Amino acid sequence: MNARFLLLTALAAAAASAQTPFERIANAAKDPQNWLTYSGRLDGQRYSTLAQITPANVKDLELKWVLQTRAPAEPNSKYEATSLVRDGILYTVQPPNVVVALDAASGRIFWTYAYDPSRESRPCCGRVNRGLALLGNTLFMGTLDGNLIALDARDGHLMWSTRLGRPEEGYSVTVAPLVVKDKVIAGPAGGEFGINGYLAAYSAETGKEVWKFHTIPQPGEPGHDTWGGDSWKHGGGSIWTTGSYDPELNLIYWGVGNAGPDWNGDPRPGDNLYTSSLIALDADTGKLKWYFQFTPHDEFDFDATQVPVLADLTWHGKPRKVVMTANRNGFFYVLDRVTGEFLLGKSFAKVTWASGLDEKGRPIRTGHSTAEGSIVYPENQGATNWYNPAFSPRTGLMYVPCWMDTWSVYTSRLEPYQEGNWYSGGGATHNIPALRPGPVTRRLPETAWGAIQALDPETGDVKWQFKMTDVTDSGVLATATDIVFAGGREGYFYALDARTGAVLWKTMLGGAMSAGPTAYAVDGKEYISIPAGNAVFTFGLRDE
Amino acid sequence: MDFTKVVLASLLIASPIAAQEGHGVSPADLERGMQIFLNNCAGCHGPDGDLISGVALYSGRFRRAQGDNELRRIVQNGIAGTPMPPGNYTDEQAGMIVAYLRSMAATGGGKLTGPPGNAESGKAIVEGRGQCLECHRIGRQGTITGPDLTGIGRMRRAVDLEKSLVDPDAEIRPDNLTVRAVAADGTPITGRLLNMDTYSIQILDARSASLRTLKKDELRDYEVMKKSPMPSYRGKLSEQEISDVVSYLVSLKEQM
């Protein structure tokens, strides 16, 4: 075989795989053997139509392979990355920025790309990464030191790198980017360092910025007047969990992080748009179509970064295009995703910062962060957080990992902004270990606990609840065979009955889960994969 | 020089470390030592170890170190009163760097045999008559079936590149091995070896330019080729042209 022949065949293959790349992602529901984007589908449902693993045979799941990280993770280096799978290749990110391509059926490694983030990186909450995006033959990853990079999915070759913000100022990129058409959507984290946040689209080909939406409106932009004085300059509005996309409406839905400083609202009078909000943007231009702010003038670090889940429901007898989110602030919301109209809001955990929501969904405030410290439910990590939810069109239920009965003492204090320094305006103590999961739990079980809850979008009612002694940072996955896969800090990985919450199967993985499960198939065999502790565990049915 | 001879020479040279630590120096150790050297030391010393006047790391002779242990201590602690800083290396990493420094001397001491080269002329040859980009990639150009040459100037010494051009079979690095296999139905398969175990081989398939696992029990035959698929340019390019190509490759420092 000569070199010229190799070239021609390689080019032909590359052209074939790049013919309809985004269409594959847009039609992911019809292509369940692959997991092509953070939530598996652009609607954020994390719902797999693979049907080989059923409630009847799930007890026969066995471990197929494990990927160990190369070195023990640091205490805060949780494995938060959702794996992607395309055509039998699984791509994952070991914390903080080590990309591994491996055989999705056997776990054998093809290549590793180890990005070494600058020592100037200042992540607020661990050296984490939530995963990759994929388009054609290119992978996209945010880096801890504020870059968005593109890699050749075939060999890990660096294609381009774009700076989103200086790490010295606290900018980092931990979000799994979202590919929409020919663009990569991402934004910087750094809400605890007084960044000035934004969500932006970059050319997948070159990394050049195509549009930018300021999550903190700049002077002259609508919403700027919701910030007193110069407080907007360091107002936060970070981006760190992946949004969703509706191809029909051509709208991107994305949750925005907390206002800065976190726990002292006094220096920033006003509602502080678009922090703690859901924004709906035109995918081509980045122009704001509508927004909904869950926690105006947030004083509790209630990022609204939870994955927005899109569904077409018959809602109170009428067809509705809705977006659902169980928010960190403890309320479950259903909005019309065409207009942003508030349809429903109901608490799914103990909440004392607000007594309820008014007819437009605005919270009726009853709790504040104070100089002397105030106990407020839920705690600083919220009633849920980055741990992704799932929705099953079959059961019509939204599945949410929850922290129940948690509180913090929220204390505010004046803190001047200094570049690169922590800018939180106070502190929050917790009744449970907030960030660092540990292998040992010793406390009164009633002080706080974890749960997977099944919420009814029509009423906000909890249809069932699966209780865990410890809280959970694990995402969930719903399947077309009415199984919900979920994990927790204790190290158990569960298959639950999607209609009742009954445990169908469980296994102990010996480490906390902080990422979402993925479902995929290779050569007709279905696999369920999830990172736990410092490793990725992958299960399948016993070979006949 | 045969690669096994290179390794053997390095093993003999590095034997004090090997004896102390209870393990030998493998090709992978040398490769890792080279990577650490190129990433951390070559910035001052140059990839050939000859950029600092009076310090010829490629020569195998060190004024301030008699043996490998002293050399390793310098790598870890630096040299007080000089710009040589301490390095945050484990004993194992420092040992790999030392093994690589020793191997530099054993593989030609960084001395080029040809005339001085012209990088611009070399670029024209690489992109044209040399047909290098039919198998190699440089930045956004070329293909991925052969080793990636992007940033090769940060990763390989000029003397190694020269040797690869005229005698590609002399030393095939572990990253660049080729697998040739025959499927059960007789279909030939060729690709770069990425990984291998008792039951399977992971390759970058040359035909489809995609990642692929070959199950050994489903193959009629397979072998890891001891020869490079790259042709020798001895006789195809003049000495001057080879020097030009080397000059161009050495100038490729960017990572993308």
Describe the 3D structure.
The complex is a heterodimer of chains A (about 550) and B (about 260). Chain A has a single domain (about 20-540), classed as Quinoprotein alcohol dehydrogenase-like superfamily (Methanol Dehydrogenase, Chain A, 8 Propeller). Helix content of chain A is about 5%, strand content about 40%. Chain A is built from two helices and 38 strands. In chain A, the strands form ten sheets. A five-stranded mixed sheet of chain A has the order 1-32-33-34-35, with no helix packed on it. A four-stranded antiparallel sheet of chain A has the order 2-38-37-36, with no helix packed on it. A four-stranded antiparallel sheet of chain A has the order 3-4-5-6, with no helix packed on it. Mean pLDDT of chain A is about 95; it is low at about 1-20. Chain B has helices spanning about 5-15, 15-20, 25-40, 40-45, 70-75, 90-105, 120-125, 150-155, 160-165, 240-250, and strands at about 135-140, 140, 180-185, 190-195, 200-205, 210-215, 220-225. The two termini of chain B are about 30 Å apart. Chain B folds into three domains: about 5-105, Cytochrome c-like domain (Cytochrome Bc1 Complex, Chain D, domain 2, Orthogonal Bundle), CATH 1.10.760; about 120-170 and about 230-250, Orthogonal Bundle (Cytochrome Bc1 Complex, Chain D, domain 2), CATH 1.10.760.10; about 180-225, SH3 type barrels (Roll). Residues about 1-20 of chain B have low confidence and may be disordered. Chain B is globular, with a radius of gyration of 20 Å. Chain B is an alpha+beta fold and about 260 residues long.
